[in-house]
């Protein structure tokens, strides 16, 4: 058996191991080491903040001298304890937790003895690292997590993805989590332009503006329709405009297998024909939803879901007139959650 086939087999095995086990594998021999290291560096900005900081320091070693000078990190403070890297670590990255990466920038590059935190410089640093990921193989990117996790950063730090040079980071994505505290219209429009291969989508729609809520729901519906093969969808905190999202589901009728709706207001929503068309649905969870009617749910009562294995409903906000939905869940002979306040 060739060494290439052995490497493929080991990679298929190692991908199921936990981080401590991968570290052990990296110490076995020269064949196991690069395979384990590649997997360890897939998602450098998950886990603890100290890990994120150390990863940024190592990634900074791959910047050229002009880039280091441009963001002011070319002095001995950053590099005094770092050696030349053995592997091309940036080329291994397949997942970027963008919020965690931004959160790690301040403690790493804004040392209290050197200078104060500056958002403009921080933005320049973010751009430099994103450009590095593009140069090192942006086409390998598979997952991106966009969450607000640090003070000071707002929508402008996320709008940089509108720049065409980052298209190679967004185009191959198959998994996306979006949970930012600022209006999402701009970032969703950007993602719609560049992303059409998303298979797993989780989005938090909280917004204080009634007008923006409707616009965000419309933009989300457009994004859902633009995907080639959406498998799972989770929508949280949608205060209005649910009709747009439910109608868009019909465009994913053949691919959608899992749907989760949490804290969604279905006021003025028409019948759920879009959901009823998803005949390959396997999991369906609804929690804390409001303003549902029998008319909305009627298409589900008439539809066939031969692969549906799990239905969960949290009855915390269930009104007496909505008992028909509880009966439908029970009729599927599936699991549902009872009112925990009873």
Automatic annotation (TrEMBL):
<dbReference type="Pfam" id="PF12937">
    <property type="entry name" value="F-box-like"/>
</dbReference>
<dbReference type="InterPro" id="IPR001810">
    <property type="entry name" value="F-box_dom"/>
</dbReference>
<dbReference type="InterPro" id="IPR032675">
    <property type="entry name" value="LRR_dom_sf"/>
</dbReference>
<protein>
    <submittedName>
        <fullName>4026_t:CDS:1</fullName>
    </submittedName>
</protein>
<feature type="domain" description="F-box">
    <location>
        <begin position="8"/>
        <end position="45"/>
    </location>
</feature>
<dbReference type="InterPro" id="IPR036047">
    <property type="entry name" value="F-box-like_dom_sf"/>
</dbReference>
């Amino acid at each position: 058996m060739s060494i290439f086939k052995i490497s493929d087999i080991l990679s298929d095995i190692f991908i199921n191991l936990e981080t401590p086990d991968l570290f052990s594998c990296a110490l076995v021999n020269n064949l196991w080491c690069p395979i384990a290291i590649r997997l360890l560096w897939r998602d450098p900005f998950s886990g603890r903040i100290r890990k994120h900081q150390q990863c940024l320091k190592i990634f900074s070693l791959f910047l050229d001298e002009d880039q280091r000078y441009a963001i002011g990190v070319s002095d001995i403070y950053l590099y005094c304890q770092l050696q030349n890297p053995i592997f091309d670590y940036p080329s291994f990255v397949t997942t970027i937790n963008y919020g965690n990466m931004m959160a790690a920038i301040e403690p790493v590059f804004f040392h209290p003895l050197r200078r104060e935190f500056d958002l403009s410089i921080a933005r320049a640093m973010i751009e430099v690292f994103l450009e590095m990921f593009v140069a090192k193989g942006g086409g390998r990117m598979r997952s991106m997590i966009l969450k607000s996790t640090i003070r000071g950063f707002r929508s402008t730090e996320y709008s940089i993805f509108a720049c065409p040079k980052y298209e190679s980071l967004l185009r191959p994505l198959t998994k996306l989590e979006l949970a930012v505290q600022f209006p999402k219209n701009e970032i969703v429009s950007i993602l719609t332009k560049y992303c059409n291969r998303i298979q797993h989508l989780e989005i938090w729609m909280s917004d204080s503006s009634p007008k923006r809520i409707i616009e965000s729901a419309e933009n989300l519906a457009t994004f859902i329709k633009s995907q080639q093969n959406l498998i799972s969808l989770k929508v949280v905190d949608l205060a209005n405009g649910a009709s747009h999202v439910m109608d868009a589901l019909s465009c994913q009728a053949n691919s959608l297998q899992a749907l989760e709706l949490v804290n969604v207001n279905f006021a003025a929503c028409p019948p759920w024909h879009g959901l009823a068309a998803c005949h390959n649905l396997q999991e369906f969870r609804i929690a804390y939803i409001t303003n549902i009617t029998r008319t909305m749910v009627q298409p589900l009562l008439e539809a066939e879901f031969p692969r549906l294995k799990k239905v969960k409903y949290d009855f915390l906000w269930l009104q007496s007139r909505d008992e028909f939905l509880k009966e439908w869940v029970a009729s599927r002979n599936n699991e549902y959650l009872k009112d925990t306040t009873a």
